[in-house]
Amino acid sequence: MEKMIEGQALWMGDLNATVQHIFGERKASKITELTKSNFDTVSYRVSLLEIESSLAINKFAAFESRKSMVKEIMKALDDDNINVIGGCGMGGVGKTTIVKKVCRQAKAEKKFDMFAMVVMSQTPKLELIEKVGIPFGEDHKGCKILLTSRSKDVCNKMDAQKILPIEVLDEREAWILFRGTAGEIVDSKDLNAIAREVWRECGGLPIAIVTVGRALMKNPSKDVWIDAARQLQNPVRTKIKGMESYVYSSLELSYNYLESEEKPCFLLCSLFPKDNDIPKEALVRYGIGLGLFQEVDTTEDAGHRALAIVSTLVSSFMLLEVYGKIKMHDVVRYFAIHIACKEENKHIVKAGIGLTDWPDNHTTFQNYTGISFMDNHICELPSGLEFSKLEILLLQWNSRRFEIMQIPNNFSEGMKDLKVLDMSSNSMLSLPPSIQLLTTL
């Protein structure tokens, strides 16, 4: 179980049985006697942070989608045939908050004598009874484990009998959370339209909504809100307080635990325009061209490997599968672009943003290995480009039916390491002669 678990394992069980199991029968009797003693002044001061956390939990848990999730978990806690419950979802979706709400409710209803929460960043081969001292399973039916993870596979490997996917908030709940965080100022005539644009960029991800909402809270400046919307559309250089540290760090943990073949495929998905379906067959072709699949001899085997990786990324919530179509959550895509700009194999992504000309600052792209200008309106390609490290160039869906793409003869002379070139769905009279120089294509 080498995959990342991230999050909590909340254990709930019977006090007397547990004490006997961990300490032995003789010591257990002494401990039980102590628990019956009367203490007049056992207390501790609750910090402001805990009070704020409590208020946030209650507010977030009031959403219908979260209430139904808590209800499902509470129902599973009452089922004698279920002793391991798994909640899985992408980073920042609210798994921890739901676990805390369940814990509070289970305590209030006195469902168990004892509660213990363990935070794990990586799954050990988890010997709950022998090494951790947590009894569960057929011989300990009064004990339950509720675990959360960013990977559905982890829940399966932990033999969870009940697995509940935790999704992002729908539009109504997302707006309520954003408005509640940023303040009623978002209802003002001057700010409402731009505030809704900012809210949409958060994509229903609670951690992004709260982080951005707090950064803009009660700020009446329209310029500040317009700038925030612009930064969210170009998150690599965002200066929104906490956006990178809170949101991206929560996703970075998931990324770090991806396998060596999974990381480049994940970054490859960010080359497609925002909100677009990601064609599986394109991932297969691009992956083969870039040599991403190790120890694969045939195109058919490479296809199976690519689809297996996509399946893993979906189960880890780094990709979404909606009605059989592969998509990437906006915030996750921004994160992937952010990561790709920092890694050795850098990508520049300006896909689907309405470009009509090749960017003037193309000389700054010389060290990039991937460029995606797909789904724009670039009908004239420049000459004299020097992209010595470029391996993948995506230019499809630019010129339309009545627009012929103009391609200089020497267009690809400075791209001699290019492995993948996609110029499909463009109107062209012919390919440039310099295409013959691309011997690694």
Key words describing this protein structure:
41% helix; 441 residues; four-stranded parallel beta sheet; 4 domains; Arc Repressor Mutant, subunit A; 11% strand
Q: Helices and strands in order, then pairings?
A:
Layout: E1 7-13, H1 15-23, H2 25-35, H3 48-61, H4 64-77, E2 84-88, H5 95-108, E3 114-120, H6 128-132, E4 144-149, H7 152-157, E5 162-165, H8 171-182, H9 192-201, H10 206-215, H11 222-233, H12 243-256, H13 262-269, H14 280-290, H15 299-315, E6 320-322, E7 325-327, H16 330-342, E8 347-349, E9 370-372, E10 392-394, E11 420-422
Give an overview of the whole structure.
The chain is α/β, with parallel strands linked by helices and 441 residues long. It folds into four domains: 142 residues, no CATH class; 78 residues; 77 residues, Arc Repressor Mutant, subunit A; 98 residues, Alpha-Beta Horseshoe (Leucine-rich repeat, LRR (right-handed beta-alpha superhelix)). The protein is built from 16 helices and eleven strands. A five-stranded mixed beta sheet has the order 3-1-4-2-5. The protein has a four-stranded parallel beta sheet with strand order 8-9-10-11. A hairpin with a 2-residue loop joins strand 6 and strand 7. It is globular. The two termini are 39 Å apart. The N terminus is likely disordered.
